[in-house]
Amino acid sequence: MLRKNYIMAPGPTPVPADILLAGAKETIHHRTPQFLEIMKETLESAKYLFQTNSKIYTFVSSGTGAMEAAVTNLMNPGEKAIVVVAGKFGERWKEICDSYGIQVVEIAVEWGNAVSPEQIENVMKQHPDARVIFTTHSETSTGTVIDLKSIAQLTKDTDHVLVTDEVSGLLAEPLKMDEWGVDVVVSGSQKGIMMPPGLAFMALSEKAWKLVEKNQCPKYYFDLRYYDKNYPDNPWTPAVNMIYMLNQSIKMIKEEGIENVWERHRILGEATRNAMRALNLELFSKRPGNVVTAVKVPESIDGKKLVKIIRDKYGVTIAGGQGHLSGKIFRVAHLGYVSMFDTITAISALEFTLSELGYKIELGTGVRAAMETLKREGVAG
Ligand SMILES: *Cc1c(COP(=O)(O)O)cnc(C)c1O
């Protein structure tokens, strides 16, 4: 059979043709009034994605670059930071902090669980000298979302600075940076923003900027003071064509409306979860989010084989488990430029694969549950 490819992984995600075409325009010099005008307009409108009035900084890097920028601009070596570790990306915050000699007060959460606001509150009380808190809104490795809004209430009117990794969460999980009082948001281009990999983002509250101004951590490329100096002009060569793409992406998101984008992710997440339940598969997360659905691999099945067959035979790229979850879970994303039919396609390919591996199902069981969910949600049928 002809095999079409579908990316149903939590990054990179599918890129719409209109965004690819926007990037295919001629590269112009970055130190020109013409490019500066595009940069200005694009970064101004990017505030919408974060629901903030603060400036949006862009880095030519993947999402991890923005994470490193958050650590090195807010923390000094030797200082204490509170770090929530509930999966691979929480671990990344810890590893970056470790690399710079920052003392980590770790809130270790079992993978698949979400940190509670009470846990954070307790640690804040035990360590009053730790002012910066690093969290992961959507822990992509486990498919878990935290209650960021309630956590922000703990820090909003204090001198604590709340940092959130929104690399996968942005646009898939509701986020109102200013209204909720989140201080620092980092993200990347290849997830909800529907672009190829290569651009990272950061937004900071005034409270967070006070730390940046007096920060003494060794750094150069990611020193935010350089980025702010001639803003929106970039201190180094910006990713000119990716800025064109970002401009187009924001236009498309504005056209759909951010509330509708959030709602689409919720509905596709719900349809995917219901499909898994109908197939007698167990969700891995205790608090599943709308970025990616993590599913336990049934005992009788080789999880790595499942991910390989669904990709190589059916053209549907899903993700396996990371770290100690390798082979134990698989993850089906519903992130970015994904419609209900992409989700249905992924579920049907999963059913074929499960069936091929000897898992007893009646074909169509998961697809039907997903379709019924879509009908119940009022988007189809
Ligand atoms: C994808 C992702 C990242 C960053 O990964 P990069 O490969 O550096 O872009 C960070 N955090 C989370 C939660 C992610 O999903």
Give a written overview of the molecule.
The protein has helices at 17-23, 33-50, 63-74, 88-99, 117-126, 148-155, 177-180, 206-213, 224-229, 240-256, 258-278, 303-312, 340-356, 365-376; strands spanning 6-7, 56-59, 80-85, 103-108, 132-136, 138-139, 144-145, 161-165, 184-188, 200-204, 292-296, 316-317, 319-320, 329-333. The protein has a seven-stranded mixed beta sheet, sandwiched between helices. By secondary structure, it is α/β, with parallel strands linked by helices. It contains 14 helices and 14 strands. Helices cover 43% and strands 15% of the residues. It folds into two domains: 6-12 and 257-376, Aspartate Aminotransferase, domain 1 (Alpha-Beta Complex); 17-256, Aspartate Aminotransferase, domain 2 (3-Layer(aba) Sandwich). It binds pyridoxal-5'-phosphate. Pyridoxal-5'-phosphate binds next to helix 3. Residues 10-11, 62-64, 89, 136, 138, 140, 165, 167-168, 188 line the site of pyridoxal-5'-phosphate.
